[in-house]
Write a structure and sequence with these properties.
The chain is of the alpha/beta class. It contains six helices and eleven strands. The radius of gyration is 21 Å and the shape is globular.
Length: 207
């Protein structure tokens, strides 16, 4: 047996005898959970977190952002924009194509969010939201469209990423991801470019 093989076996044996592995114990992370915050504070923090990743929160004073979204979508369609909606009650002018590559012409995609994280503006979507009102949705939609619009319930904002796992519910084969603002890169000379590899903009309508 070579020295490398012996070392590998020794490491694996040590891991096998570890108390965590034997008792299936998990570290106590309860101290990392956030203290209760008022909804207004969560919304304020989320707005700042979203702005930090070049996203925009839409939440009018009267709280009627859903009707506002309807009006904005109607205006976009009247301007000749290609709009696809996965949100019940919001009507686009495009149907889901058979092939995902055909989505490259979509100007605006409208998707329901499951929840969002206030500290960094990250928004969680999974198979349930991406299917929306159309069971044949391609999961590439939020990344291939020119502009992304998300609808978020104001009761579904958590304070930190430590609080997020309790909101995640994935089954075998499901897809889930965090989306934090539009596409961004700063690879070249550390100059921030928005929209280089995906959506140029992200607006979140809080309802």
């Amino acid at each position: 047996m070579s020295h490398n093989t012996a070392s590998k076996q020794a490491i694996l044996a040590a891991l096998g005898q570890s108390s965590i592995n034997q008792l299936n114990q998990k570290p106590d992370l309860s101290g990392l959970k956030s203290s209760a915050l008022l909804q207004a504070d969560l919304i304020n923090r989320f707005e700042k977190g979203l702005a930090s990743v070049t996203g925009e929160l839409v939440y009018p004073d009267d709280g009627n952002s859903f009707d506002l979204l309807k009006g904005n979508v109607a205006q976009l369609i009247s301007q000749g924009m290609q709009v696809i909606s996965l949100v019940d009650g919001i009507q686009g002018n495009q149907l889901m194509p058979m092939q995902p590559h055909e989505l490259k012409h979509i100007d605006y995609a409208i998707i329901q969010a499951r929840f969002a994280v206030a500290e960094n503006g990250a928004i969680w979507v999974d198979s349930e939201q991406l299917n929306g009102i159309n069971t044949n949705t391609h999961r590439v939609l939020p990344f291939i469209c020119e502009n992304l619009i998300m609808v978020l319930n104001k009761d579904n904002i958590v304070a930190t990423m430590h609080d997020a796992p309790e909101k995640m519910h994935l089954h075998a084969g499901d897809f889930g991801t965090f989306i934090a603002g539009p596409s961004k890169t700063a690879d070249i000379e550390q100059a921030l470019v928005v929209g280089a590899h995906g959506a140029f903009s992200l607006k979140v309508y809080l309802i």
